[in-house]
Amino acid sequence: MNVTGWPVRKTMCATCPFREGADRELKHAVLARTLFQRSQVCHHPRLEGQREHEICRGQRNEQLVLLHRLGWIEAATDAAFARKSKELGIRTWSQEHERAGIQTTQSATDSRGASDAAPNVLSVLRE
Fold first, then answer.
1. What phi and psi values does residue 35 have, to the nearest 5 degrees?
2. C-alpha–C-alpha distance, residues 15 and 41, integer Å
3. Which tens digits make up the pLDDT trace of 30-52?
4. Cβ 57 vs Cβ 10: under 8 Å
5. Mean pLDDT value across residues 101-119
6. Which pTM does this prediction carry?
7. What one-character-per-residue DSSP string does 65-82 give?
8. Do residues 63 and 25 make contact, with C-beta atoms less than 8 angstroms apart?
9. What is the pLDDT of residues 8-22, one digit of tens each?
10. pLDDT for the residue numbered 109
11. How far is residue 54's CA from residue 41's CA, in Å, rounded to a whole number?
């Protein structure tokens, strides 16, 4: 699934496994499958019968902290991630929105909600 054009949630949703007191095993399972390879889709809208359309804020925060600790971005922020993505020639969702003049991009979800086709700063930095 390609989530290019999908925004990252501004806050963690009510069911986010990255919230304080949430299921640690689920959190670690999500991180194991996504930290270096993909973005996690937020499943909260599906619980309310709506279409999924955002990237999980909790999982993105974990990626940002790791990238910052490794020295790949200057701060654990979306802005620093966007700057590094631009520097590396990777389009971020905000650049996609600006280029296409759209609010969101509709796409099908896979059974795990993870996207291996998402623009990924980590995959470029590992090479």
1. -50, -45
2. 13
3. 998 888 778 888 988 877 778 88
4. yes
5. 41
6. 0.69
7. HHHHHTTSSSSSSHHHHH
8. no
9. 999 999 889 999 999
10. 36
11. 6
